Amino acid sequence: MKIDTHAHIFLKKLNTVANARYKPDYDASFKDYKANLDHYDFNKGVLVQPSFLGIDNEFLLQSIEKDENIKAIVVVDENIKFDELKKLKERKACGVRLNLIGKELPNFKSMVWTQFFENLSKLKMQIEIQRDLDNNLVDIVENLIPYGCNIVIDHLARANANLTNLEDLICLKNSRIFFKISGFYRAKIDYANNEQAVKFAKKIYEILKEHFPLSNFVFGSDWPHTNFESNVNFSSALVAFNEVVVSKKEQEQILGDNACALFDF
User: What is the pTM of this model?
Assistant: First the structure.
């Protein structure tokens, strides 16, 4: 079993949110994504709503509707009602993503947010976080732990070269904190080539693995590698994973059992 837990689909004609950090000038279709899964012998996948499409998840959910091997992580407004969240789950959304890159943090202790997190907990939906490790990521995770949801941190926490706040993250030592081995090129470091970025990702993985169970790591291709299309593709992302996780036994568990359990396949 091989499962890709992090990729995106979009069309350039779709409406993007105001002040989007990225606006695509090409299509990354569901058909193209499935072709990658087939070519590299992946059985299942998880598609994540890209930040530039905001809370309109319709293209994503319609695309996966008839494919039993694909699930979704959606983006929603925190004011969403329980019944609406439940409908999203019925349409194969297994969690929500908090896109917090470059954003001022909301008051997660407000009534609106606490109700939102309680609803996610009732529905057993995971919370995926996109935020830099050196920018309040640990505080965010600490706020979420009491709700009992699985907390999934994108791209090995997007650490910087000084590993700022990594020790604080390690100290949380909570069994519901998961990490995506993905987007090695999104770390906050200066690197001359992919090899240097992969080496850094391996360092982060090895440190985290000392403090979190191996079962708490999953793989994500991050296809189509927005903003990095010219120097990364599905193949090189997979090669990078094999260099970050050198043990074949660990690779098999991360690609298979770990992802299967976390995303309830």
Answer: 0.96
